Amino acid sequence: MAQPSTAVIGSTGLVGSYILSTLLSQNLPVTTISRRAPKATGPTLNPIIEPNTDLWATSLTSLSPPPKTVFSALGTTRAAAGGIANQWKIDHDLNVALARAAKESGVKTFVFVSSGGTRGLFSNWAPYSKMKIGVEDTIKELGFDNAVVLRPGFILGEREERRFSGEEQARGAARAVGRWFGLGLQDRFAQEGEVIARAAVKAVEMIDKGEAKERFWVLEQGDIVRLGREEWKKEEGGNPSTRPLLIGPPSGPSPPYPYRMSGPVIPGFGRGSKDLGIPTANLPVNTPLTPWISSISSGVYFGWASLLLPPTHPNYSPAPNAVWSVFPMVMSIGYNPFYKNDTRSAEVHVLHKFDQDFYGVETRLLIMGYIRDERDYKGVEELVEDIMFDCEVARRSLERPGWRVKELGGEFEGGWLVRTHDEEVDKEGQKASL
Ligand SMILES: Cc1cc2nc3c(=O)[nH]c(=O)nc-3n(C[C@H](O)[C@H](O)[C@H](O)COP(=O)(O)O)c2cc1C
């Protein structure tokens, strides 16, 4: 890549994945180094998949030209790492090795997502604080042109795994506090992952404009909220026109996509048609049937919807040799921050004009990729504008032969969408996937 990219480490974690999607939404060239593929994709992404973390520092130094900025939101849990010693290897040793490698290769700005309370009374006693302090001090000593250390409090959002037992309840309580008392109180101790990511990106924008407060810039909780929520809203950060129109490479989706989901259309709150003029079909969130759904991040996805419309339905238009009608779709999985839902929903907007609703109709979804995070909005117009843009992204991305299902003249093997129940049972018996 000729243009220096930005490198993101920890891009499969909560804050890191938000940092990545924020940068991609601005069409910036980004290189990620991770054990498995990051969730977000985009034409400006260069993902380096390296299962052996010992080689990450070398992967970083071998980037040419070197990245101008490196973000590290790398961190694990004691449970996932298998004990404090192993957690130390990732949270401390690997972060330190990466910071050193970054400095060696000429990186100008290093951004580290640390943790709130690392410097407080008794904090030196806690191994977790020690790990973070060790990294912060190394970054300071290395003398980057600029460094940013973010010290968020308790992080809200969905992690792929729980950090400590009771976290779900604690997070639920933090959200509830936000709902009951307004965001002010909630912000003080529980910044949303997205806000932390935006604060990190915003800090780098300010550094690039020569507006950094200090060369070694520490963002405490209040600064994170100011940069990531208030400042961000004033600017064009979320303007859909700055988002890429194509997701993923022309060849087609890469693992873990596509995901499959199925079920009958159930009623939602009915606001889709009424408030937004964008009808949505809700599908049941069935964790035993689709275990991935509990770990997949909330956000907006796109792909194909196949409907078992009855022949009497005015829009019955089955694919050749099939009884299912296949259409492109966009969908939201999550809590709809604009409406502050309590339960997680999966809502599909089928890209087709329907003359009649289709409640109860059996539906199959092939989720081909991820578009963006869910957002909160100042007004309904902004939400509608963003969804309209999502529709355009889906339409254009799915038009490419590598993404278009064979049933509609493309090259992508999406046979599951149109198989009859009997064929499906046969195929599953033979352990065929799609
Ligand atoms: C493509 C798409 C993107 C969406 N993005 C968001 C979002 O960013 N934030 C949000 O609060 N809701 C989002 N929604 C959800 C809408 O708010 C939701 O569909 C609407 O509330 C209708 O829900 P209901 O039919 O259950 O009433 C999105 C929906 C779709 C289909």
UniProtKB/TrEMBL annotation:
Catalyzes the phosphorylation of riboflavin (vitamin B2) to form flavin mononucleotide (FMN) coenzyme. The keyword Cytoplasm does not apply. It is an enzyme of class 2 (transferase). Keywords: ATP-binding, Flavoprotein, FMN, Kinase, Membrane, Mitochondrion, Mitochondrion outer membrane, Nucleotide-binding, Transferase, Transit peptide. InterPro entries: NAD(P)-bd_dom, NAD(P)-bd_dom_sf, Riboflavin_kinase, Riboflavin_kinase_bac/euk, Riboflavin_kinase_dom_sf. Residues 254-399 form the Riboflavin kinase domain. Pfam families: Flavokinase, NAD_binding_10. This is Riboflavin kinase. Belongs to the flavokinase family. Belongs to the FMP52 family. One of its GO terms (biological process) is riboflavin biosynthetic process. Pathway: Cofactor biosynthesis; FMN biosynthesis; FMN from riboflavin (ATP route): step 1/1. The keyword Transmembrane helix does not apply. It is found in: Mitochondrion outer membrane. The lineage of its organism: Eukaryota, Fungi, Dikarya, Ascomycota, Pezizomycotina. Its main location: mitochondrion. One of its GO terms (cellular component) is mitochondrial outer membrane. Its EC number is 2.7.1.26. Residues 232-253 are annotated as: Disordered. It catalyses: riboflavin + ATP = FMN + ADP + H(+). GO terms for molecular function: ATP binding; riboflavin kinase activity. It is a peripheral membrane protein. Signal peptide: none annotated.
